Each structure stands twice: as structure tokens, then as C-alpha cells.
Amino acid sequence: MRQGDGHGAGLLVTGTTSDAGKSVITAGICRWLARQGVKVAPFKAQNMSLNSVVSLDGAELGRAQAMQAAACGIEPAAEMNPVLLKPGGERTSQVIVHGRALGEADAVSYRDYTGQLREAALEGLTQLRKDYDAVICEGAGSPAEINLRPTDIANMGLARAARLPVLLAGDIDRGGVFAALHGTVALLEPADQALISGFVINKFRGAPELLDPGLRMLRDLTGRPVHGVLPWLDGLWLDTEDSLALSADRGEARPPVGEQTLRVAVVRFPRISNFTDIDALTVEPGVDVRFVTQPQELGDADLVVLPGSRATVADLAWLRRQGLTEEIARRAAAGLPVLGICGGYQMLAREIHDDVESGQGRVPGLGLLPATVRFAAEKTLGRSRGTAYGHPVSAYEIHHGQFDPEPGASSAEPFLDGYRDGSVYGTTWHGALENDAFRRAFLSDIARQAGRSFTPAADTDFAAEREARLDALGDLVQHNLDTDALWRLLESGPPTGLPVVPPGGAS
């Protein structure tokens, strides 16, 4: 599948909106190609997400691209997501290029980075196309965000630079999918329209033949085919890209293995990050996971989780305004379990010294763990290994905060890379709960402290669950998309002679 220039084939999946299914469709195409024996890799030029992972060589990239890499059967690498933006405030984001943080930028100063980011994106794609037979690219937001077109490097800007055929996906479950697909094309300038090679309709519930009149009209109006209709299927995707796709329940309800259900309440911070740490709990039978924002929602929880945060000090202030701190402290005093992960762990300390992320200097923490947190200018990035409850644990770290335990704090004991004091646990390690034996032992310990007759399933295999979902995505593509058309786009590029769709409608 090499093109005439010796580079691997390329295809860009865009969407009419955020959460239209770009990540899922990209992963499904990757899985389908990998099962055909194609050496394939994912790519997203620019990702805005608070969910990230660390590659083997210590580079930070979006978690969705790591999941797509798993669909390809390969390790994630910085080239797959050369630009990552991590929002920290209402107007600013941390800019990460080739896996390393460059600094903070707002909407205005971001324009100063445009040339550098465009170069980084094209470098990443070029390298992948040298190394792989096919690269399936994912767009960001919508290509019809015409106010951002001059600085676009993720959608039509990338497609134009690399001459990529583009699939445009629309979410029919939101309603208005035909207007969204047609309107997106019509808003693009002719040179961009020339690369829009076909449509995919996503999340359809019902009999596909009911769509036929609309599909025919869409083709007549745009001169472009619909390459398939993907049915609505629950529980396909674990690693959602951002909190827009975060529902109150991250998984399917499963019956308990023992006598009772274990109830987990995860605090949904305004700037919650790496909430994918909780995914392993959602596939555990008998564990009920819900995201909460109010003190009364913690009342019957057996475990409260403070997850990661991109803005630890700001989200700690929000926690106080919500009245959640008093309820968390009451629970800890009563011996009910609380787990802090990364930013949530930092909040549990006695004091936080932050001249880096928030610039607020010394801030009181929740005081539930005997330690002080000091923010370092250099971010800690890496893969980690250790043991807990007698079981091996592999994880990864992404944090500025460094922990200094208080001298003589005899009540604290090690927990992963962090500490446990009574019923309060803290760690910077992301992904630790994906380790099956450790997760079972931890949940058993939580159930004992909470007084629950709960027994974790003995055979839950999170890695196998993830692989099964990736296979389901591959099946979704294989059985519902025109794969012959996908092959043609990969082998030959955008079709020639596609009509221009004027803003008024008729082509």
C-alpha cells in the first residue's frame, strides 16, 4: 500500500462536531486494516485533551491515540500525536510538542506557535508514512470551524498539505445529520471540498433502509457517496478523549459476584484529567461507578476517588466551594476509604506549594495525608513498575507535583509510589487499576473497610476486555462500511472531479 513517493497511504477521518465518533471510527479502521495484515498506525496532528499517556521513551501523547495504537497492535509514540493541548484555565492550555511541554498559551498567543506546530505535525505524519504502510489520521472538532481555518493543522490544513482523502462522519443520534454533513462541505473552500471523499453516518438506531431517501438526496446534493451507516452499539469505547463524552456511568451495569455491590463515587472536577483511570473499575462485575459533584452524592459511597486534575489548586478551590471537602474529611475520620490519583493525591496533602501551575504559592491542602507537595517546573513523565498487596503493578506518571513526607509521620505507610494513612490512599500512578491482581486485592481491602460483603470476580481481565472492544470496532467497520471504497481511497487518494457544493445548496 505504498504510494508512488514511497510513503505509506493516508486517510483522514473528520467529523461534523466534537464527539461525532472520529476516535472510534479511526480505531475501527486501524483494527480492520491490522487484521488484513497491513502495517498501520494512527495519527492526530493536534489533540486537545486532558487524557494522556506516556510512551516507552517518556513522551506524552493523547490517550485516544494510544488506544488507536493498541488497535494497530503497536506501541504508542509521540509521532502519533505531535501536538497536544491540555486546557488548564478558561482561556489557556499547556502546549506539548513531540511529547514535551513548551509552555502555556491562550487563544491569542497560540497563533505565535502556528508555524512551529504545523511543522511538528507534518514531521510526525511524514515519519509515520515512512515507517508504516498506512496511516489513519483523526481530525479535531469540525473542519467547518471556518474562523480557525487559517491556523488549522488538524483538519483540512493537514489534508491539503499531505493530499489526504477525507471521510466526514456525522452523529445521527444528535439529529440533523444530513444538514450537518451537507453544511460542513458547503462551508469549505473549493480546494478543501476537493478532498472530502465521502461520508459516514454514525450511531444509527433503527432499520438502515429508512435512511435511503436521505442518503440518495445527500449524494445528489454533494456528488459524494455515503460509505456506510454505523449502528449504535453501547460499551464500545473505554478511552474517551475528553469530558464531553463523560457520562454519569462509564460502563454497563453488571451483577455482583458476591452478596453486595461496591459503590464508587468519582469526583468530577471542572478540569478532570485522566479519568480513564476509572475504566478498569467499570468493567468489574458488581462495582457501581458514578461521577459526582455534590456532597450528598457521596453519602452511600464505599470508595470516593479524587482523580487527576490539570489545575490542582483551582479544582481544590472548587472542591471547597462545593462543600465536598467537609464530607470527604468526615468519611476519612470514620475510616471510610478515599483514593487520590495524581492531582487528587496532591489535594490530600497538608500543604501545596505551587509557583508553576497556578502561581498561587502556598495553599492549604485537605490535610488527610502527612506530606507537602511542591510543584517542580519540569514535568515528571515515565513508565513505572512496582508491587502492592504482593502483586506486580505497571503504570505511568504525568505530574509536576513532588511529595515530601513529613518527618516522623509513623501512621503513613507506602502505597504504590505514594502513601496510605488509615483509610486514605494516594498515588501519582495512572493506570494502576488496570492491573487485574492488584485491582482485586485493592477492592477486597476497600470492601472490608467499608463493611461490604463484596467479592471481586476472579477472572476479570481488563486487557482482554479492551482487546474485545477493539475487535468489536474492527467488526463494526468490516460489516458496515464500504471497505472496497476505503481500499480505493488508501491506494489512489482523493477521487478526481468532485463537484463544488455552493453555500446556497445545489451542486
Automatic annotation (TrEMBL):
Domain of life assignment: Bacteria
UniProt KW Oxidoreductase keyword: no
Domain CobB/CobQ-like glutamine amidotransferase: 263-437
Entry keyword Glycoprotein: no
InterPro entries: Class_I_gatase-like, CobQ/CobB/MinD/ParA_Nub-bd_dom, CobQ_GATase1, CobQ_N, CobQ_synth, GATase_3, P-loop_NTPase
SUPFAM superfamilies linked to this entry: Class I glutamine amidotransferase-like, P-loop containing nucleoside triphosphate hydrolases
Pfam family, any one: GATase_3
Catalytic machinery residues: 342 (nucleophile), 430
Molecular function GO labels: ABC-type vitamin B12 transporter activity; catalytic activity
GO BP of this protein: cobalamin biosynthetic process
Domain CobQ/CobB/MinD/ParA nucleotide binding residues, every copy: 12-236
Pathway(s) where this gene product acts: Cofactor biosynthesis; adenosylcobalamin biosynthesis
Alphabetical UniProt keywords: Cobalamin biosynthesis, Glutamine amidotransferase
Family named by the database record: Belongs to the CobB/CobQ family. CobQ subfamily.
Physiological role: Catalyzes amidations at positions B, D, E, and G on adenosylcobyrinic A,C-diamide. NH(2) groups are provided by glutamine, and one molecule of ATP is hydrogenolyzed for each amidation.
NCBIfam families linked to this entry: cobQ, PRK00784.1
UniProt-listed HAMAP family: CobQ
Protein name as catalogued: Cobyric acid synthase
Organism encoding this protein: Haloactinospora alba
